[in-house]
Amino acid sequence: MKSVSGIVISVAFLLSCAQVENPHKNMSNSITSSYNPGSRDTDTARFGTGCFWCTEAIFQQLEGVHKVSSGYSGGHVENPTYKEVCEGTTGHAEVIQVVYDPAKISYDELLEVFWQTHDPTSLNRQGNDVGTQYRSAIFYHNNEQKQKAEQYKVQLNKSGAFEKPIVTEITPFTKFYIAEDYHQDYYNNNGSQPYCYFVIKPKLDKFQKVFKDKIKH
Fold it and tell me: Is the pTM of this model over 0.70?
């Protein structure tokens, strides 16, 4: 007979991002389209690595990162809701917007974290999260970001760093729709939730060991 803790762990790992119940049902679900490059001293990057709750929690810990916001990019529907995106009909990916200080952390370093904290060889899937909304994606803002992303992808494929070819989408940024309020700062606000404790926390623990020289102190 399985122990109660064993059953809880098994159930937690079967959960996908979309299956977790909204813990803040009374909060606003308003969506706004925004592009905020920050001040002259900051730059912006946008990445999709599956569930944005996990990605947000990781990039928030990087030294030089000012703000991380969860949202949607790459689709064809204006002002999509989380429910619509989860249905996979809007074309959007779950994305994080990273506003950072390039004097403290470079785009190259952000790309390094991007490639190493998810599976870029899995098409439209990360773990139990399945669908085009969970695709691996880089939405570049200029030619420099595009060239660096493409070059990094080529080098990784040539080096055999992954057993399978990288399927990461590298595409020009058009619009970013910020996600509903309850998605923002999700891990910090819901750390005791099973999905956070059993899925996100192990990823953070691994990240902190690998990138210990890049995290905030």
Answer: yes
